[in-house]
Amino acid sequence: MSSSARVTGAPELDASILSLPFRPLPEGDATCTISPIINSFVTLQEPIVLYPSPNPQASFRAPSFVFHIVHKPTGKSLLYDLGIRWDFETAFSEDYVKVLHDLWHTKIVDDVGKILEKGGVDPAKVHALLHEHWDHTGYIAPFTTAELVGGPQTFAAEANLSEQVKASGKTPRIVDFSGPSIQPVGAFERAFDYFGDGSLWLIHTPGHTQDHMSALVRVSSAPDAQWVLVGGDTAHHPCLLCTHANHAQYQLKATFRNPLAEADAPEVKMHFDADLARDSIKRTKRMEAEDNIMCVMAHEYGYWKYWRGNEEVMFPGLGLSEWKKRGLKGTRVYDVTEYEE
User: Fold this and answer.
1) In whole angstroms, what is the distance from residue 231 CA to residue 215 CA?
2) Which CATH number goes with the domain that contains 62?
3) DSSP for residue 27
4) How much is the average pLDDT of 235-251?
5) Which residue, among 187, 176, 217, 158, has the nearest Cα to 280 in the 3D structure?
6) Bond preceding residue 142 cis, omega within 30 of 0
7) Pick from 118, 111, 114: which is nearest to 87 by CA?
8) Number of other CB atoms surrounding residue 26 within 10 Å
9) Cα dihedral across residues 189, 192, 196, 199: positive or negative
């Protein structure tokens, strides 16, 4: 996502997203800061995450983004995702370790807790961990006072996270996305106002996992309110969220053949429910079409290339505040030349 790929106009929108209802985002003075952190890298094979794949032999290096969020009115800090556990080689089962090594070519940068400490944030004072999938649940031990937040299946379905929760003695805070406190926001039907002031919404975006959760963060107040939507594993290739009409052909890959498995082995499911995943992508794409919302997924190789080395963007810098003024939102047009392996 180089400077030449920044948003420069209003191209024809993908018609599939225009029919979605969109509720105006809530106004208010309360805002948060949000800063990206990278604790690990993985290599993704294009035909596993994109269909149809224009380059079936292509693969790309991608980060596992973690996001440090600070609620300005209270000073409480939160983490959306925790990246891959730094000690995965001993913490995960042999099967998981083999996948991380041989299929995803995982490289750990550092433990998230240590990255925070180097940036002046005490992990023991982090207020909450907003959890997602196995490669984003990280290592929770340094966050001794943080509440663990997720949907009903978040802590039940993931063995490694469940083990960490049990060892910590914590009782997770479960967000019931079918409960009475849930409201529609933007293009989404089910969202929870975490602080009660409209500055941070936890959004149900199921599909990749049963209770996958995105977070919508207000980074500036009216009259020029701006938002950042962090979407974890909602999409694994940026062009899946491209709003250009000529990119509507691209869809997520529902299953893939594991190159590490036997030749006659059945294909592997990429998502808990592919239809739900497609719906969550469609709704996220509708958010991306708004000029006051910037969407960032967990494995955004384009944003990584664009932001790396930029101390203003990456934690502990300014983060994504005033992203519009600073020209931080980029396009998502398919471009294999941006891949790095």
Assistant:
1) 7
2) 3.60.15.10
3) P
4) 93
5) 187
6) no
7) 111
8) 18
9) negative
* Residue among 52, 41, 15 at smallest CA distance from 107: 41
- Compute the average pLDDT of residues 32-49: 95
**Cβ distance 212 to 206 under 8 Å?**
yes
pLDDT tier for residue 331 given thresholds of 50, 70 and 90: confident
Chain centroid offset of residue 286 CA:
16
- In the structure, what pLDDT confidence band is assigned to residue 91 with cuts at 50, 70 and 90? confident
Domain count, the chain: 1
What CA–CA distance (Å, rounded) separates 16 from 286?
9
Question: How high is the pLDDT of residue 5?
Answer: 36
Q: With b meaning 16 or more CB within 10 Å and e meaning fewer, what string describes 125-137?
A: ebbbbbbbbbbbb
Cβ-based burial of 187 (10 A; exposed 0-12, middle 13-18, buried ≥19): buried
The CA distances from residue 229 to 30, 124, 279, in Å, are 16, 26, 16
Cβ proximity of 36 and 318 under 8 Å: no
Residue 341 has pLDDT above 80, yes or no: no
Domain that holds residue 41: 3-338
Q: Is 122 exposed, middle or buried (0-12, 13-18, 19+ CB in 10 A)?
A: middle
Q: What is the pTM of this model?
A: 0.93
Sign for the CA dihedral angle at 162, 164, 167, 169 comes to negative
